[in-house]
Structure formats: structure tokens, C-alpha cells
Design goal:
The complex is a heterodimer of chains A (about 325) and B (about 290).
Chain A (H helix, E strand, L loop, with lengths): L8 E2 H15 L3 E5 L3 H4 L2 H6 L4 E3 L4 H12 L4 E7 H7 L1 H10 L4 E6 L17 H5 L6 E3 L4 H13 L4 E4 L4 E2 L15 E2 L6 E5 L3 H16 L3 E5 L2 E3 L3 H11 L2 E8 L4 H12 L4 E6 L9 H7 L4 H17 L16
Parallel strand pairs in A: 2-3, 2-4, 4-5, 5-7, 6-7, 10-11, 10-13, 13-14
Antiparallel strand pairs in A: 1-8, 6-12, 9-11
Helix pairs in contact in A: 1-8, 4-6, 9-13, 10-11
Chain B lengths: L18 H22 L5 H15 L17 E4 L5 H11 L39 H16 L6 E6 L6 H12 L5 E7 L2 E2 L2 E2 H5 L4 H7 L3 E6 L3 H16 L6 E6 L22 H10 L2
Helix pairs in contact in B: 1-2, 1-3, 1-9, 2-3, 2-8, 4-5
The chains are: A alpha/beta (about 325), B alpha/beta (about 290).
């Protein structure tokens, strides 16, 4: 395989390290904590710049609007909590005070997805990509590994305006390097191939690479793996090219199959150059307690489901575009 | 009906004044509110009329440091209208302060206007510090601004915010109050417009938020209760805030302004039904006859 696991690390560490790094560079960077600073690793910044760290307690709504107030005072304001609370508890604040105001607030959505593990369904945010990407003015990034999260955090801090960065709790394989290019809005094509495209984000990018390796070595299928780290603004060109050149797409994300990366890709494809798409993700249900690996298997978000979805989408590709078939032939998808 | 709505060109300086002068300015503000609302054909009448006296003292009594010709002047004090539906009074105040022409008040709530139904930062109306209208968010934004000034930059700027009383039913208000009190933001002046009216009726009947004073005091605020139509009390309240801020009392100030919805217009007086309605032409004419 072209990509190797260079060492497993949590993506949240990349966020924490980058914040502390950016605190040096930007003396107007202020971080707001809502009691889980050791979890989302804003604690690194807090230790280094206590005078620019504001603790508001477990009050995510106030944290978000206070961030907006700081941004309206010329600060780069960062607020991070678990994604379940920094995207939903404060949803109206994100919409009005952050997005509508179009201010320099950066929201960290940590412990995202089922991989937060034993905490269970209440803490497993699986819907925030759908919500956040619907907000005008927002930038939304879902980086794949430690190194990319570090770079993505720096990039959203350097880019004026509201942004949301989503990352996870567990150690996951790191396959990007300090030299890998990261540019907001520009998806990275990781493997060449034109039989099928696998568009993934976050923890599922590594699974997509594993899937592509199996597809090629065991089945002779060449998959184009696209690391679509920026959900908004979406990279229309790379996705449309994939649709034109591969004619079949599988999306993969640790998020509900409705409204997330899959939805974003489908919108681009439907509008520009339709092709069959299969969606790997959470299938319209809530998670539960367990170890991250057990949960990813249970809820069908591993390389195995990606491989199966590639078979499914290639079958559809071979039969021809769904629009040319009789309505009665169209299978009703369960996801 | 032979009735033409016209706005004067008057602007007012920001300086200490005698009660009668405040009264005259507040009358002009009230007339603006009626005129802009009758043209808009929608919007909130009662609240803006009720808070006109307080807003007049705050903006034209020398209590706020601002420069209408240079709206983003760095040392300015800031005002956040948390109850965004009260926009008609703020728009009139800003126009009369010289931020923009009073004639623009004719565009309230109309297509393409800078005078949005609730203030929007995206339309760049000079003097507007933030979008607001989703209740409870403005006070929290004001707390963020006050943190920026007091805790981070350690400067002398003040932040004023106006919330409704019904607005205090929003949970975020109390998160904000907790943080303001806990951080000792003595540069923050939180005004509660206490007219005891909201859309569905009396605040105490919809959901009581009383006792307001005890609540804010328990959150470490210095609380001042005043009659929002008594200029002597208004002046004393803002003097007290200035003193609290200057002496770094370590507490935010809360002014509970007991106001009367629709104040100045007999048929709107203390009637919650005027929370969210504009006057029609006939009512506007009658109101303007009373506001002289």
C-alpha cells in the first residue's frame, strides 16, 4: 500500500497542539473552555496562555455567544467542546451570533462520532456535518489524522470568518506527513484509479485506503481515494472529475448517511454530472456504548462496508445510470 | 386620509442635560418610532416607546463614548440591543445621533433596507455592533465584549446591553449573568426593560421571572431599580454605573428599568397587545398628536 501508518495518535491532539502553536503567533487568539478542556485538549493552550483562556463552565450556549462577542472585539475566538454540545446545544447561537454575524469564531467539535466509545449515544454526535454545512458563511473541515488536524486547525485560524473543525477521541493511524499539502476547500486525491471513486473524510479516510488496497490486490479494481477534508466549501471540481472519470462513487464518513459528506457529494454530482453513489455511514440510528473498534464494526463504518459498497455501486454503474431503468427495477435503498 | 409622514433633520449632541431637554428629545424619538412603524406596516410599537426615555439619557446624556462620524472608533463604548425587536428605538437614536440620515427611517423593514426588522450586521448600518433578535444572545455577546475589554485588553471601554424582562426566560441569560458576575465585569451595564409585558400577556402570567433584583444580586451584580421615565433616577443610575466601573467594583451593574409599554401614547399605555403591532394611519395620526 502506498500509505503507511506512521504511528497512531488521536486527531484531538493535533487540534490542541495547533492551538498552542497559534497562540504564539497570534496574540489576539483567545480560547474559551466549557469544562472539558482536558478532553478536547484546549488545555495545552490554557497552560501556555492562561491570560487568554476564559472558562465559562458547562455552558455551551454562552460559550458560543461570548466567543462571538470576543470576535466582534477583534479577537480570534476559539471554543471547543464535545461535538454533541458545540454544534447542537448551541445551534441557534452558531446560526445567529456566529454564522449570520460572519465573525472570526472557530468551533472545535471534539469526541465526534461513535468512536468516542463507552460514553454511549448521548455523546456520539453523528448529525453535525448536516447542520453546520447548511449555515451560510461557515467553513467546515473534518480532517483525517493527527497531522492533518494540526494543519487544518492552523488553516481555519488563519482564514478569517466562522469555521467548525470536527475531530475525534481515539488514537487512529497517521498517514499524512508534515510535508503533505493541506488547503481548505481542496480535496486530496490519495490514490489514482478510475473504476470507482471513494470519497471519505475523518476517520474513514484510512478505512478507504484499506478498502482500495483490498479492491486492487484481490479484485483488480482501481479505486480513486479522495480525502475530502473540507465539507464546506466543497471541492466541486475534484468531485465532478471523479464522477466523470470514474462513473461511480462511494462516500464514507463517521456520520449519519443523511445530510453529511454523502449528501454534500450527492448534491455536487446530481447537479454537475450524475453517477450512481453508495453511502457508507451511520444508517439513521443512534449509537451505543462499546470500544471504538467494536462500534465501527457494529454500525458498518469500516473498510469492509466500503468494499461491499464499491461492488454495489459498480453493479449499478454496469447496468447503466438509474434514470434509464424502469421505476419497478429500481431497488429501494435501506439507507 | 390627509396625513403625510415626514422626518425632521434634527440631531442631538451627547452631553449632560436638564430633564426637560431629555423629555423633548425623547418625544422626537417617540415620533420617529410611530412614523417609521406606520410606514413599515409591521413591527413593535409598545416596547420602543417604553424605553425611549432611558435610551435618550444613555445616548444623549454623555454616558456613552462614541463618534457617529467614525463608527468603528476603537475606544468607543458599545451598546448591544439584546431584545432585537426593539430595533425601531435604536434606529431612531442612531439617526438622531448622526450615524445616518433620519430620512432613512422611512425604510424600516422594507426590501433592501439597512434597517432590518431585527438588527443585522450584514447590512452594515453604522452604529450596529451585532446582529440580534434571537433572544438572550445579545446579553451574552455583550459579556464577550466586556471580557475582551476588561479581562483580555484591560482597557477602559464600557459595554451596555438592553434586554427585555420576558427575555430573561431564556436560559442563556442566566449563563451570561453567571459568567459576568463570576468574572467581575464592572465594565458591563445590563439594563432590564421591565415593562412586565410580552407577546402572550403579562410576564408574571406567562412565566414569572421575579424577583429580578434578587436573581441578579445572587449572581454578583450591583442592582439598581429605577423608574424608567424619571430622568433624575435615570441619570443617577448611569452615574452609579460610571462610578462602579471607575472604582473597579468587581461587579457588573444591572439597571432594572421599570417602564411602561407604549408610554406617551394613551391607547397603547401599558397594554401588552401593543408588543408586536404597528399603528395604522389613523392611530399614528392620533399618537403623533399626543406626542408633542
Amino acid at each position: 500500500m502506498k500509505y503507511q501508518n506512521l504511528g497512531s495518535k488521536p486527531t484531538r491532539n493535533g487540534f490542541g497542539i495547533a492551538l498552542a502553536e497559534m497562540g504564539e503567533k497570534h496574540n489576539n487568539l483567545v480560547v474559551i473552555g466549557a469544562d472539558v478542556t482536558g478532553s478536547v485538549l484546549t488545555s495545552f493552550f490554557k497552560e501556555k496562555f492562561p491570560e487568554r483562556f476564559i472558562s465559562v463552565g458547562v455552558a455551551e450556549q454562552n460559550a458560543t455567544t461570548v466567543a462571538a462577542g470576543l470576535a466582534l472585539s477583534g479577537k480570534i475566538a476559539v471554543f471547543s467542546s464535545y461535538s454533541a454540545f458545540s454544534a447542537f446545544r448551541n445551534a441557534d447561537m452558531l446560526r445567529v451570533s456566529v454564522a449570520y454575524n460572519d465573525v472570526n469564531v472557530k468551533i472545535g467539535g471534539g469526541h465526534a462520532g461513535v468512536t468516542v466509545g463507552p460514553d454511549g449515544a448521548t455523546h456520539q454526535s453523528l448529525e453535525e456535518i448536516a447542520f453546520v454545512r447548511a449555515l451560510p458563511n461557515m467553513t467546515l473541515v473534518v480532517p483525517a489524522d493527527y497531522e492533518e488536524t494540526r494543519k487544518a486547525t492552523i488553516a481555519v485560524i488563519e482564514k478569517p470568518g466562522p469555521a467548525f473543525i470536527r475531530f475525534g477521541r481515539p488514537s487512529v493511524p497517521m498517514f499524512t506527513t508534515p510535508e503533505s499539502v493541506f488547503e481548505i476547500g481542496k480535496a486530496n486525491v490519495l490514490t489514482d484509479g478510475s473504476d470507482v471513486a471513494i470519497v471519505a473524510c475523518g476517520h474513514l479516510v484510512w478505512e478507504a485506503l484499506l478498502a482500495a488496497d483490498i479492491l486492487e490486490s484481490k479484485h483488480g479494481i482501481k479505486a480513486r481515494v479522495i480525502n475530502n477534508h473540507t465539507i464546506k466549501p466543497i471541492d466541486v471540481k475534484t468531485i465532478t472529475d471523479a464522477s466523470i472519470q470514474c462513473g461511480a462513487i462511494v462516500t464514507a464518513e463517521e456520520h449519519q448517511v443523511h445530510g453529511g459528506l454523502g449528501g454534500a457529494v450527492a448534491e455536487v454530482v446530481a447537479k454537475n454530472y450524475p453517477c450512481p453513489i453508495e453511502f457508507v455511514g451511520m444508517r439513521d440510528e443512534f449509537g451505543g456504548s462499546g470500544e471504538p473498534d467494536e462500534l465501527m464494526i457494529k454500525y458498518g463504518m469500516t473498510h469492509k462496508e466500503i468494499v461491499m459498497s464499491v461492488f454495489k455501486v459498480l453493479e449499478r454503474k454496469e447496468k447503466g445510470f438509474v434514470g434509464y431503468r424502469k421505476v419497478s427495477d429500481v431497488p429501494i435503498s435501506d439507507n | 386620509m390627509d396625513f403625510k409622514v415626514e422626518f425632521s433633520d434634527l440631531t442631538f449632541e451627547n452631553k449632560r442635560r436638564e430633564p426637560e431637554e431629555y423629555h423633548q428629545i425623547a418625544l422626537e424619538i417617540r415620533r420617529d418610532i410611530i412614523k417609521s412603524l406606520v410606514l413599515a406596516k409591521s413591527g413593535h410599537s409598545g416596547g420602543p416607546l417604553g424605553i425611549s426615555d432611558l435610551m435618550t439619557v444613555l445616548f444623549f446624556g454623555g454616558y456613552m463614548n462614541y463618534q457617529p462620524q467614525n463608527p468603528s472608533y476603537e475606544q468607543r463604548d458599545r451598546f448591544v440591543l439584546s431584545s432585537g425587536h426593539m430595533a425601531p428605538v435604536l434606529y431612531s437614536i442612531l439617526a438622531r445621533a448622526g450615524y445616518f440620515s433620519p430620512h432613512e427611517l422611512t425604510s424600516l423593514r422594507k426590501f433592501g433596507t439597512r434597517l432590518q426588522g431585527h438588527p443585522g450586521l450584514d447590512v452594515h448600518l453604522p452604529g450596529i455592533e451585532t446582529s440580534s433578535g434571537s433572544l438572550g444572545q445579545g446579553v451574552s455577546i455583550a459579556v464577550g465584549m466586556a471580557i475582551s475589554d476588561r479581562v483580555i485588553d484591560k482597557n477602559d471601554r464600557a459595554v451596555f446591553t438592553l434586554s427585555g424582562d420576558g427575555e430573561l426566560q431564556e436560559g442563556i441569560c442566566w449563563e451570561s449573568a453567571m459568567s459576568a458576575g463570576s468574572l467581575g465585569l464592572d465594565n458591563l451595564c445590563w439594563i432590564v426593560d421591565n415593562n412586565d409585558c410580552q407577546i402572550d400577556g403579562r410576564v408574571k402570567n406567562v412565566m414569572s421571572i421575579y424577583p429580578i433584583k434578587d436573581k441578579f444580586e445572587s449572581f454578583n451584580f450591583d442592582v439598581i431599580e429605577i423608574d424608567a421615565h424619571n430622568y433624575i433616577e435615570l441619570v443617577e443610575a448611569f452615574d452609579k454605573f460610571e462610578k462602579n466601573k471607575k472604582s473597579k467594583i468587581g461587579k457588573p451593574t444591572c439597571i432594572i428599568a421599570k417602564s411602561i409599554m407604549g408610554k406617551g401614547v394613551s391607547f397603547m399605555h401599558d397594554d401588552y397587545k401593543w408588543h408586536g403591532n404597528p399603528p395604522n394611519l389613523e392611530q399614528a395620526k392620533k399618537a403623533l398628536e399626543e406626542l408633542i
